[in-house]
Structures are given as structure tokens and as C-alpha cells.
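Minimal example, chain plus uracil.
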Amino acid sequence: MTVLPITKIPRTGLPAHALVVGDPERAARIAAVLDGSHEVARNREYHTYTGTWQGVPVVVSSHGVGGPGAVCLFDELAEAGVTTLLRLGTAGALTAAISDGDLVIAEAAVRDDGVTHQLVPPEYPAVAAPEAVLALRDAAAAHGAPAHRGLVWTRAAFAPGVLRLPMEEYVRARVIAIEMELSALYVHASMRGLRAGGVVVIDGNAVDEHDTPYDPHRTVVTEAVERAVRVALDALTALAVRAGEPA
Ligand SMILES: O=P(O)(O)O[C@H]1O[C@H](CO)[C@@H](O)[C@H]1O
Ligand SMILES: O=c1cc[nH]c(=O)[nH]1
């Protein structure tokens, strides 16, 4: 097979630097701002494009919602030769100090992702590459985007059920945002010897759900995502340019 089975990504010829996002439409919008972009694969929720940003070849792929499915994409991107992955997502804030539209750059993630516990013992960390964190920080500052660095809670279930969530405990332990894939990305990257980072746009406060019902389609969020696309692409190309530096 010349293409990989789950995503239909070609086995060879992909750039080494990838931006991954949950929403296939977001992937298409990112591809539209690249130079010379074209779709290289489309299967299930996985839509993949290549193009260049500031002269640097990049991949853009969607991974859908949730860690287990996202790991299928991360596996196949790695098999196709991708070595650096940045995720650009959306997340709920866990503190009133972070506003809608702000960025959170995830230094590490709580592994409540529903998949990595089947891959590696639970004590194994989910951490970003420090140079990815700093590249995202610098790119956010260059774009004047309000950004916070810290821990995120990656949780497999989007909506609560009947079980009590350890929300209060994580808030007290200074976890600042909640989303659904970053810990899977970080664990996958560490296990494979790849480089990963992530930035999320805040689309509401996940603690005070009754005050701000979940609505990621508000202008404050969509405009921030548009700006975050450029932040993430700038960070990705900065990492590509610095790829030869010592660890
Ligand atoms: O905006 P994306 O990248 O999809 O990220 C967040 O949005 C989805 C939930 O609606 C989950 O995938 C979560 O992680
Ligand atoms: O998982 C998510 C993603 C976006 N916003 C949330 O509140 N949770």
C-alpha cells in the first residue's frame, strides 16, 4: 500500500513539520493561508494538506475529537516521516484569570485521555518539548495574542456523566484549561522520540458552565482561532528553522 490505512496519508514525501487540529474545517482554513497548498489525503475525520508557510514546507491534518482517534493520526504521521507536531485546538478555561479568546500554551497535560493508559504506565509523563513551548510563546507575543503557559487537563469525555469530576482538585492544583487530545499527543511524541507542543484558544469557562454555555462559534473565539493559526504556523516554522540546533 502506498497510503497509510487509517488516514490514507502517503507513506513518503510528507514534510517533517505538522500542525494538527481537531476540526477538519479548521485544517482546510489553515491550508487556505499556506502557499501552494493541496490536499494529500482525506479519510474519515482525517483531512491532510501540505503547503509552505514563510517558505517552510508543512503538513496540516485534522484528528477529530478525542485522544484514541487522534493517536491513529499521530501514529500514521510519524510513520510518514513527521518529526515535529504542534496541536492548535480549543479548550475551556479552569480559571477566571483566563478570558475567552486567550491562548493557553500547554507545558504538560493530565493524562485523562482514555487511550494512553493502554500504551504506557500511568506514571509516564505527558510533556511538551520545551523549545515548542518557547516557540509558541514567542510567536504569541509577536502577534500580540494574550497567552498563558501551564498545565491542561486532557479528558476523554467531553460532557459530564453522573460521576463527580475532580474539577475542584485540578483547579486547586493549578491546571488552567481542559481539552481532549493534548496528553495523547505528548505521550505519543515522547514514546516515539518526536517533538510536540500545543496551543489552545479558550472558548469559555469550563468551571462556570451555567454562566457561559459552551459555544465555540462566537466571534471572540473564531477571531482568536484565526490569529492562533498564524501563531502556530510561525512557531512551527521557527522550530523547523532551528531544527539543527543542539538539544
Ligand atoms: O477544537 P479542537 O481542536 O477540536 O479541540 C477541542 O474541541 C473538541 C471538543 O469540542 C475537542 O477535540 C477538544 O479538544
Ligand atoms: O474539551 C473542551 C474543548 C473546548 N471547550 C471545553 O470546555 N472543553
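The longest strand covers residues 195-205. The chain has one domain: 17-241.
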